[in-house]
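> Could you send the Glycerophosphoryl diester phosphodiesterase prediction when you get a chance?

Sure thing. Input:
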Amino acid sequence: MRTKIIAHRGSKGTAPENTLESFRAALKSNCDGIELDVHLSQDLVPVVIHDETVNRTSNGEGYVYRKTYQELQQLDAGSWFNKRFTGARIPSLEEVLQLLKVSRFKGMLNIELKTDKIAYPLLEETVVDLVERYQPDYQVVYSSFNVQSLQKVIGLVPNAEIAILLKKRGAQKAFLPNGHPIQAWHGSHRLVNDMIKNNKRKIPIRLWTVNRLFDLGYCLNKNVDAIITDYPNRALRVRDRVQGE
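Output:
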């Protein structure tokens, strides 16, 4: 089995992260999956953005949860990256699901629930309800640094696929506090050997964020389940060289 290539926040290295433009670039690359991040707007719309504030990736300022969806839509989320992306917007999760539907996407969608800094009371319920309404015929993985979020997801959809995010050695968990098994580890690529060594249950290991040629080659030679990268086209080329076409 070849290592899957997952586009991190879309094709983050070549387009403004977590925008429809970035997701279209990822789809065009024919990568195996897409990763994105979800917060809640003030009016409880799941929106796709990485940070708790809009400051870094738009021309606005302030916390996401203090702005309505319409207010977020007024922001320019593209020109900070490159002027040719002027006018790109912060999309709702529903817009991304619509894009995947019309694109007949068949890969993996990794939805990171951004509750490690702000505990959104209704984020899990709102996101899971939206995804279930779309009845996707592709793989959906919910990931988070926050085990409470993962427990909420399982409480809502017992057969949902969940993954815990890891950035420290020795932090690997096999089970949630309620005893439900964690189905995958999504860890920093610097932890690859530590994760392989401690993976007694042989669950999928997916590594982030793997961009440099050396790191891509090293991780691909470890035959992990997936690599999450800002440069899906580059990663696909390296995979062909390392693991064959």
